[in-house]
Amino acid sequence: MNIEQLATCSLLVVNGYFTMEGTRKNPLFIKADLLAKEIYKISKNFPKDEMYGLTSQLRRAALSVILNIIEGFARQSPNEYRRFLLISFGSLKETQYLLSFAQEQNYLSEIEYRQTYSISEEVAKILWTIIHKKMNN
Questions:
Q1: Distance CA 9, CA 26 (A)
Q2: Rounded mean pLDDT of 75-81?
Q3: Are 7 and 129 in contact (CB under 8 A)?
């Protein structure tokens, strides 16, 4: 499936409302959920003195990506959906910077960094495609 096809995937609608079942089948949800879980996994090994600093900030930024996607789905309005996707995109850019920062501090191996950053780029491509489709509608 290419980016254009992913951007047009619809959610499951029951009685006029989006459902979590439909959300969980959406490729954007799947990739953003994977990103959050990977961030939690790799940040478990960060130094303990970063618990309330980088570890917390990176985890909150990654969760913000998926949570804003979910909230946008639930809003039932194309304009609100787009607004929450833009917020999600901002959180994704924050996540990407924090991943780079963690790697520069030697908190991540090169492999962990590349794999996780690659997932974040996949999320970015899908998000950006959907945002631009919504702007042109």
A1: 7
A2: 85
A3: yes
Q: What is the mean pLDDT of the chain?
A: 85
134, two tokens: 């919504």
Distances in Å between the Cα of 70 and the Cα atoms of 29, 57, 83, 118 are 8, 20, 12, 22
Q: Does residue 5 surpass a pLDDT of 60?
A: no
Q: What are the chain's domains? A: 17-135 (1.20.1440.60)
pTM value? 0.82
